[in-house]
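Continuing from the previous page of notes. For each protein in this section, the sequence appears first, followed by its structure tokens. Read the first protein now.
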Amino acid sequence: MTTTQHPPAASGLNYNPYAPRNVWNRAMNLLAALFSLMAVLPLVVVILYVLYKGGGAITPAIFTELPPAPGLSEPMGMGNAVIGTAMVTGMAALVAIPVGVGGGIYLAEVDKTGWFAQFIRFGVNVLAGVPSIICGLFIYALVVDTRILWGESFSAMAGSLALAVLMLPTIVKTTDEGLKLVSQELRMGALGVGASRFVTITRVVLPAAVSPIATGVVLGIARAAGETAPLIFTALFSPFWPDWSSGLGLLAPTATMSVQIYNFGIMPFAPQVQLAWAAAFILVVMILAANLLARWLARFSAS
């Protein structure tokens, strides 16, 4: 009876935790983890601190009362700023979504590689990096200073236009990229059964790309909702409720939560500072919810 003798394993194939390359590998992994933690830690600290400082100031009166006059502590509300933020951001979305989605459709479906499409893509990329205060100054010079909106200067509508400019790059780029992900076979199949190009885009391609487009819209709205500088130049501020007699409140100066944080945060009065933290809390929760919704839409699209 013969037995097969296996040679002993080579010592070089055994894992040696003290080998220089293994020590170096562990050190680099720890360093990478440390740098990742350092990148995320400021965000976590800021969010937790805002939630801690502002969470205690949230009461039902926040949404139903006006802010107190300087030096007074009652009423502790900022309902005008909450309504103003929703009004300005909502109107900006109504302006930016049709323009942004239409621009993305043109880039992805009509003129994919032409010189004009390349120029538009370059302009969108540049606009995405322009400081928001420049957009606010542009709308100030174009709309506020000229009083082109029915003779009015600072107004919620002017603020909406400034935020719409900031939302456009995100919506255009995500629409463009989302439509490119749609299978070419879907287009060919629709055209093959006699559908026109318009019907193919609106009935076949757009429904297939609705999730990435919706993701871009949500991210654009989240970015616009937290902007301050453009609104200082356009919507300004108001300590009162929106003037519904003035173009449904769109043609008069309007309070927004971001500008309220700027105005109240530097005041020497505790009630105003507390309201600034409350506004920061609401904005952070809104932006976190919008980003979570965007991630869910992206996952839904991938699945």
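Done with the first. The second protein uses the same format. Note its length before scrolling.
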Amino acid sequence: MNEVGAGQNEPGTPSVLRRNFCVAAIGALGSLIAAAMALPAFMYLLLPPRLRGQGEWVEVGDISQLPAGAPVKMTFRRMRVDGWKVLTEDNTAWVVRSSNLQVFAFGPQCTHLGCAYHWDRTKDEFFCPCHNSLFAIDGKVIGGPARQPLHRYETRVEGNRLFVGRLTMSA
């Protein structure tokens, strides 16, 4: 007969050491998974907001060079933070200086489906060629399928310098 002495396992039962190792390995793996899932939450709380830079004021140009009552397409550069990358993007605005020195800056996309529109000098209106939407010089809808006015940038003038802020969605 085969007798089992102290410190030995019966045949067919796993070793206590192997069982302890498996329990420890599963616990360590679970801890690693939990830490990997918690890391993005801690990074979000500890790092600056990702959208930093999008709401900051950016200089567009000299408004003294703009003709009154005629929109001018102006390009400006804005920094954008995407995760940990800082990107510089070219942006466009249609800038209008009214006769009473008010300045408006419109986003470059039609509010219908986001196509690019242009200023039609012969009709004094913004025209979107995708679906024939028409907008007045103040951005209001005057025809076509678009139902909302053009989106506007927040604007600020210092001396003759025009600055734009966030693009605000029209109501």
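What the second structure shows: Residues 49-53 have pLDDT under 50 and may be disordered. The chain has two domains: 1-47, 58-168. We return to this in next week's lecture.
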